[in-house]
């Protein structure tokens, strides 16, 4: 008499809500390394040239690790996998995997359509519950018809995995989960970076579980997040309907360190909150996501910092003055907008020297320079702007009532502080230095560039005896101010700084 098939309840009890997908010739060592942190493993048998050859290893692994809960998958090539065999061969391999101890097997809808319910019965007879799955690697079509396609086969679980090419498509998946996930027998997430929110929030909206990639290893699907990121950074298993959602929005944001910094902050402060990346350049789409997910606060980056302005119910003086906003807080009256780039620059500099009546040279005249100019001017400093395009420096100087200066006139000046707000020193940036060693006549040098942490200008300034402030201080300071706006409590600055430095190391 075979053991009863796994149920949603017994699955959660045995294995939790995160499944790590392992693949390739190293799949068993990856699985062994994963087990101390996660006991739920998907074996992608189709990721090796001869899946059948892995079955004895699978049997041995599961005998040695009775604590593991295992899914076996042998996806055929036309449906996104690597298996070149027929549907019948797929079923035979999975039936073997089931008898080797896998509690679950995953077959694509097309396999069931080809072979009928007998294929599912064969797998169940070998002790495994059947996940019927459907993938779309291009986009998100209507999802209900894909669910309906599965109904005649009465699978134990259904899995729907489209690709989110937009946040709207990711929301479409969340809506489908809300409607059909109630019985705990649906697994759904969107592939792609824009699908991240579905991978993190999926279980909250009714997905039986979500997938992660093993540590230090490529995932088995685009946009898959590593186990430690999902477990410890997003704390995906602890997310409930009560969890407050925050996010960074803009395009591009794939390299943003904000999710790392703010999720670390929420965890350090023991707050039930999560911070997600929302990649979009479309404000209307962002506002729809924010409303539907009840996002409480946002970091706003390019190109939305200006387009958000008409949607602010209230804003701070810096936003009004500079007409650019990088922080949103949802209030009963609507969005409150703040600019924390200004205190992000003023704060660290103020800790190094008093600002009233100091003379400060700013290299560059772009967005970061703008925050520096207005913030430092209002703190009482005398500002000089030096920029490649003199006319741009002149225009900003005229707007703010400060000075523009030409490079050839630099030798006539000494400064209290110099701030680099050009991209010079950024990784992969090859521009000429905006200042030479002999022109660094100042006490303090603040390089806003923060990747790498140690920039050529910081090194040069240090060699010249200047006190230096690395750009990480601005990044952390603006984040600290965001945290305070969102939570009303003091921020765990050290933990935030540490997380950023670790990411940049
Ligand atoms: P931006 O608006 O594009 O402005 C860039 C400035 O650098 C412009 O004044 C530009 O001069 C100048 N520049 C660009 N390429 C140059 C080149 N090849 N030679 C000489 N000058 C050049 O950028 P942004 O938003 O102000 O950001 C500037 C830098 O600040 C970024 O690269 C980033 O590393 C840093 N930043 C750091 C933080 C932080 O949290 N630490 C935050 C924001 C920015 P033209 O006017 O002549 O084009």
Question: Short summary of the structure?
Answer:
With 505 residues, the chain is α/β, with parallel strands linked by helices. The protein is built from 19 helices and 20 strands. α4 (87-99) packs parallel to α6, α14 (341-352) packs across α15 and α18 (472-487) packs across α19 (493-504).
Extended strand count: 20
Q: From the alpha carbons, calculate the radius of gyration and give it in angstroms.
A: 27 Å
Helix/strand class: alpha/beta
**Tally the helices: what do you get?**
19
SSE map:
Elements: H1 8-15, E1 18-22, H2 27-34, E2 40-44, H3 55-64, E3 69-73, H4 87-99, E4 104-108, H5 109-115, H6 117-125, E5 129-135, H7 144-150, E6 157-161, H8 167-180, E7 186-188, H9 196-201, E8 210-212, H10 227-233, E9 244-250, H11 258-268, E10 273-279, H12 283-292, E11 295-300, E12 312-315, H13 317-322, E13 327-331, E14 334-338, H14 341-352, E15 359-363, H15 367-378, E16 382-386, H16 390-400, E17 403-404, E18 417-420, E19 444-447, H17 456-463, E20 467-469, H18 472-487, H19 493-504
Parallel strand pairs: 1-2, 1-8, 2-3, 3-4, 4-5, 5-6, 6-7, 9-10, 9-11, 12-14, 15-16, 15-18, 16-17, 18-19, 19-20
Antiparallel strand pairs: 11-13, 13-14
Helix pairs in contact: 4-6, 5-6, 11-19, 14-15, 14-18, 18-19
The structure holds NADP nicotinamide-adenine-dinucleotide phosphate.
Would you give an account of this structure?
There is one protein chain. The strands form three sheets. This protein has an eight-stranded parallel β-sheet. It has a six-stranded mixed β-sheet with strand order 10-9-11-13-14-12, with helices on both faces. A six-stranded parallel β-sheet has the order 17-16-15-18-19-20, with helices on both faces. The N and C termini lie far apart (56 Å). The longest helix has 16 residues, at 472-487. The chain has three domains: 8-240, TIM Barrel (Alpha-Beta Barrel); 246-339, Rossmann fold (3-Layer(aba) Sandwich); 342-469, Rossmann fold. Helix 4 (87-99) packs parallel to helix 6, helix 11 runs antiparallel to helix 19 (493-504) and helix 18 crosses helix 19 (493-504). It is built from 19 helices and 20 strands. With 505 residues, it is of the alpha/beta class. The chain has helices spanning 8-15, 27-34, 55-64, 87-99, 109-115, 117-125, 144-150, 167-180, 196-201, 227-233, 258-268, 283-292, 317-322, 341-352, 367-378, 390-400, 456-463, 472-487, 493-504, and strands spanning 18-22, 40-44, 69-73, 104-108, 129-135, 157-161, 186-188, 210-212, 244-250, 273-279, 295-300, 312-315, 327-331, 334-338, 359-363, 382-386, 403-404, 417-420, 444-447, 467-469. The model has no long low-confidence stretch (mean pLDDT 96). Bound molecules: NADP nicotinamide-adenine-dinucleotide phosphate.
